[in-house]
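During the no-cost extension, the postdoctoral fellow (Dr. R.K.) reprocessed legacy sequence entries with the updated structure-token encoder. One reprocessed record is reproduced below for audit purposes.
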Amino acid sequence: MGIIRKKSQEDDRDRWSEVDLRTYRGTEGPRGTKQILLGPDDGAPNFAMRVFHLAPGKSSNEEEHAFDHGVMVLRGRCRVLLGDTTHDLEPGDVVWVEPNEHHRFDSVGPDVLEFLCVVPAWGEVDARKRCPAE
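Re-encoded structure tokens follow.
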């Protein structure tokens, strides 16, 4: 049987109370928060759906890896780096980050950036130990 997760508001942010609120970290410390809304722990073996919150002026990790991402901006504004080109995004905009593409999401304010990000289950660091080998 499938799973339903209900959204609520907490501190003027979307929150799913039955889902752990994790600190999203970079090399220099906390960058924001992350919730894994659905993934391997829920019986979804093929994907992980996450929501990130980044305060204005914060950025996601600048990285590239073997899996692709599907991203949708839910709230706030951001600038996304894809390869060596930046693009301005607002709520409702979607991005596909292809495998091995250099990327970063910058929260450009004034509001908190909230975005939904779907990756393969093995691409979610907090779910890798619970997934089959790559």
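The domain at 18-50+63-103+114-124 is CATH 2.60.120.10 (Jelly Rolls). The longest strand covers residues 29-38. The remaining legacy entries will be reprocessed before the final report is submitted.
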